[in-house]
Amino acid sequence: MLFQKLHAELGRSYAPGETIVHQGDRAEAFFIILTGRVEVVVESEEGHPHRVAILEKGGGDEVFGEMACFDDMPRSATVRALEESRVLTIDRKGFLRRIQEDPSLVLGILRQMSGRIRALNREMVQLKEKLESKDDS
Predict the structure, then answer these.
(1) Side-chain half-sphere of 6: how many Cα atoms within 13 Å?
(2) Is 39 in contact with 87 (CB distance < 8 Å)?
(3) Rounded to the nearest 5°, which phi and psi values hold at 50?
(4) What secondary structure does DSSP assign to the chain, as a single string?
(5) Using an 8 Å Cβ cutoff, are 62 and 87 in contact?
(6) Cα-to-chain-centroid distance, residue 58
């Protein structure tokens, strides 16, 4: 009961359609989805938006923006709430300080990032196969 009350008070709520982070923005934190679902959208060089993921609590992908903790690059995607969502912000400096105290914390994030890379590799192979089969036709 106490945890549920504390959980409800943590983070910030976002309404459906509300943007949490913008592609190209400076990144100084990452996020944990406490409740709800969000979409990750990447805008192409031509300006066309492409949804690349839907993330939700309990779906194994409740963390986003984690690359900001490891590189000093701008946001690579825009993230918007698909439904009422509560999201906790984790400051990069605080996270890096905490990792120094307990390096095992980074393992979960690395596993998640590895899973995403594997999924992207599968998608890339499928797309290449489709393109090659069109070229053969």
Answers:
(1) 3
(2) no
(3) -130, 120
(4) -HHHHHHHHSSEEE-TT-EEE-TTS---EEEEEEESEEEEEEE-TTS-EEEEEEEETTTT--EESGGGGT--PPPSSEEEESSSEEEEEEEHHHHHHHHHH-TTHHHHHHHHHHHHHHHHHHHHHHHHHHHHHHHH-
(5) no
(6) 14
Q: Which residues pair with 32 in a beta bridge?
A: 63, 88
Measure the CA–CA gap between 27 and 71, rounded to whole angstroms. Answer: 9
Amino acid at 13: S
pTM above 0.70, yes or no: yes
CA–CA distance, 42 with 67 (Å, rounded to integer):
15
pLDDT in tens, the chain (137 residues): 334 444 455 789 999 999 999 999 998 898 999 999 999 999 988 989 999 999 998 766 688 988 877 788 899 999 999 999 999 998 888 888 888 888 887 787 788 788 878 888 888 898 888 888 887 76
Classify 63 in phi/psi space as left (phi over 0), alpha (psi -120 to 50) or beta: beta
